[in-house]
Amino acid sequence: MSNSDYASRQLNKIRYRIAIAADKAKRDRQAITLIGAAKQQNVELIRSFVVAGLQHLGENYLNEALSKQDALDDTDVTWHFIGKLQSNKTKAIAQHFSWVHSLDRFKIAQRLNAHTPVGKKLQTLLQIDSDNEPGKGGVSPKQAPVLCDQISQLENLCLRGFMLLPKPRTEFTEQRQSFASARELMQQCNQRYGLRMEHLSMGMSNDLEAAVAEGSTMIRIGTDLFGARGHTK
Ligand SMILES: *Cc1c(COP(=O)(O)O)cnc(C)c1O
Asked: Is the CB of 85 under 6 A from ligand 1?
């Protein structure tokens, strides 16, 4: 199968899963953005997906992202940074991405704010550590409200919601629980500080249905979209 046939087929499969899940939840499927989590995928394969209609790409590693952005600079992909944030990378990230999903410290937020180019608003999400796994990044649900309040005062950042990277679970009802908690926490933060966060970046290959059921607006799919990582297909 050609890359282009493969890309169309895979894209349709994921869009179909999103549509079914949205219908079940009586939600508008248009309100759910598909982000291709493209780490360790071949750039020509990624290009086929972009040509087939994929508009958003998520990247975990800055250097890998920059070389892909270079190779795809004739397309109008929206780039999302979804990996761990290091302070020495904040300048390039603020310049080269539209969205940052993995914000979890005020220090990093301040650096991103300082490095955001004039005239740009960096769209950000706070990563919530829903399973108490500090190594994975994310702020604890307890500390999230204060951090929301602080970040929302930085003038070059626009805080849009939360991102979740839960432990892999197989049970649908268990998958839903952490997603539901994040949605509720976002509502609480909105009320407490008069914020208008509205985005939930949650749902990956094996839990997108549960995420859509709980109000996800951004789904990050790697494996079930592009195929296994580290191959050229
Ligand atoms: C790799 C990755 C994904 C996609 O994971 P799959 O299980 O391959 O769909 C989503 N979000 C983040 C933050 C990732 O690192």
From this structure: no
